[in-house]
Amino acid sequence: MNEFALLVAATLSAGTVLAIAGLGLLINERAGVLNLGAEGMMLVAAIAGFATSVHTGSDVLALGAGALAGAVMAAAFGVLVIWLNTNQYATGLALSLFGGGFSAFLGIRYTQEKLSQRSQFELPWLSDLPWFGPALFRQHPMVYLTMAFALALAWFLYRSRAGLVLRAVGESPEAAHALGYPVRRIRFLAVLAGGALCGVAGAYLSVIYTPLWVEGMTAGKGWIALALTTFATWRPARVLLGAYLFGGVTMLQFQLQGEGVQIASQWLTMLPYVSTIVVLVLISRNPAWIRLNMPASLGKPFFPGS
């Protein structure tokens, strides 16, 4: 029972990285912009956050640096695809490749650095509960903030005027423009918000989840976060649940290895990515359902006055 509680706790922590990035990408896509550069943004933010933590010792500043790094890269992407009308798919891939190389260059001097001892967070009284305490109430505050943000984002998208405008831009930018809404500006702000959240996810990964810097340490998490938005049919609560599902699969490989299960480690390492492919294959069997939920203008450029 204790082992299962620890597995649940590890699942929540691992899923938080995917949830933060997935929620950021959902904001992009709800505005009609598809950003395939999540992996690159997360890597640059990871080294930015780690370096900040090394020099300041502050997790808050490190997460802020990660958010800033992600937002800067997203701003470059936004200028290219929103105002210069470059291809969203090609630009996103270029951003991801650039982020991988640039983060490796910046991180050369930090590969041997170590962060100070991490603080152990516990919720008073609740952390002492049998099973539930170690499973749910001894997490870093970012885990709980991510859950709260997912609920807040759902309210924003479906209950607030600004959220309805954002969804309208993603569904029909021409109609939103005809009503007087600044479509390009709204899309750019959505891209900035999404980039900042991917940046927070990258910094969380290098500073809190695995407090070290290793080249390419995201290991495909940006791509899994992209898949999550489709898996969740562009709904925040489902992104959160999907992130914990993939986080659980990731932790399961370590659990099986720890118990001495006689399976090649390479097969266990493949589990998160195989599960991603399986889920996408199952979802793609019903393309009408995907089209019903997908923002109608996703990936399509918008030319005012055309």
Description:
It holds the Pfam family BPD_transp_2. It is found in: Cell membrane. Keywords: Cell membrane, Membrane, Transmembrane, Transmembrane helix. The chain crosses the membrane at residues 35-54, 61-83, 89-108, 142-158, 188-210, 266-284. The protein is mainly α. It has one domain (2-293): ABC transporter involved in vitamin B12 uptake, BtuC. It contains 13 helices and no strands. Helix 6 runs antiparallel to helix 11. It is globular, with a radius of gyration of 19 Å. The mean pLDDT is 89.
Care to give the gist of this entry?
The protein is mostly helical and 306 residues long. The chain has helices spanning 2-30, 38-56, 59-83, 88-106, 132-136, 141-159, 161-171, 173-178, 183-209, 221-231, 236-258, 265-284, 287-293.
